[in-house]
Task: structure prediction
Amino acid sequence: MMRPVRSMLPGQISLEVAPIRSERPANLRDPNLKTGGGGISNNRVTCFVSQLSFSRGDRLLVHAKPSSEWWWAELQGVIGYVPAGYLSQDAAGEEEEDPSIEDPWQDEEYFGNYGTLRLHLEMLSDKSRTEAYRQVILSNSASLSSKRVMDLGCGTGIISLFCAQLARPSMVYAVEASSMAEYTRQLVKQNGCDEVVTVLQGRAEEIELPEQVDVLVSEWMGNCLLFEFMVESVLLARDRWLRDGGTMWPSSAALTLVPCQADSYYAEKMAFWERPYGLDFTPLQPLAQQEFFTKPKFSHIIDPCDCLAAPCDVISLDMYTLQVGDLEQMKGQFHFCVEKSAVFHGFTAWFTVCFKSLEAGGATVELNTGPNSGPTHWKQTLFMLDRPVSVCAGDSISGTIVLQRNPVWRRHMTVTLHWTIKGSTDNPDNAQANIFIYYMHFI
Ligand SMILES: C[S@@+](CC[C@H](N)C(=O)[O-])C[C@H]1O[C@@H](n2cnc3c(N)ncnc32)[C@H](O)[C@@H]1O
Result:
């Protein structure tokens, strides 16, 4: 099992990456820094770390036991992993519940955000995304005839409306947990689709359908593909409501990574401190590194010229066979051959989803959020190194990525990148191997 701690071994650099907010869903509470209010905690600040330090005799509150080796525990407002073997049960044998962890899915906040127009405006304004779903329905219209469809997380009902208007399904069950469902009903009626589309308000895990469906369609993808973990709801609905041999849209998904340069971001956040107004502000650079580079930068737009190698798919999901348990920890590998001499500032990630065709010989529709496709509201995600590294054409960058789902805050995950750089034989100056370890918390 991955050791979920920071280690400082010779030749290793490790960084713990603090959380930041993503565009979508907005304001999902930062699990790494919780302040009072909203019934979340009592005006105390709780800090999350990868590994919790403790001494003999300390009394820890255990929140979760994600594995037999590593538990998720709290000591004096700091929460992190502890090796289970170092703990023994309290003499009183009491297992206290932390009242601050009431809603690990943060549903009130999450569905509260989807109950407002801001996110729906952002999603519907995203032409690449919305047109891809429209194209899926249009190019499969003949096969969708008389089919029963479930649109999981229908939002304003856009995909259900495409189904009703572009194809002739017998029924579309449009499921939406947020209060937007009340408006979706009106939109369905307003557009004359109420004979085909039935809006069901509730969590997909809890609603009852009168029958199984032939097609389960959903737009569930978050930043770095998995953030939000709405995919869990899709898998549970698949197992319950999709008939044997039914269709999943998307049918597959992949997370892609590339090493990159990020000159302007580096200049803006780090080089800035070198000589502002003719003064030496370099003592602030370690702080800048901690504040800006130990978090992934969401909404990054990478210029294809900044990619230092051919991108590599690091995680691939088959939506027919993927299991909820698989989401706890996903591992991938990468090997890049550097194509040009440049400064290596970090890695950029994005995702692609595919919709297999129901028509004989029909083309698969693809929604690619990478730099060589149309822009989307997800943009890309940048992981900065703590220090840039010069690389040369022919060098190789190889390593692993681990997406570790947060054992408490179920919509969040940690991304760990571990890699080595090997200089090409043409470039002996760069033949040393560097190992960096990153821990990145997504919220
Ligand atoms: C990314 S939005 C997509 C909305 C719409 N399908 C579209 O394409 O514009 C996801 C929607 O799914 C809803 N949702 C997320 N999890 C859900 C669940 N378990 N049950 C029902 N709705 C859910 C959210 O409230 C949100 O409106």
Notes: Confidence is low (pLDDT under 50) at residues 1-23, 33-49, 428-443.
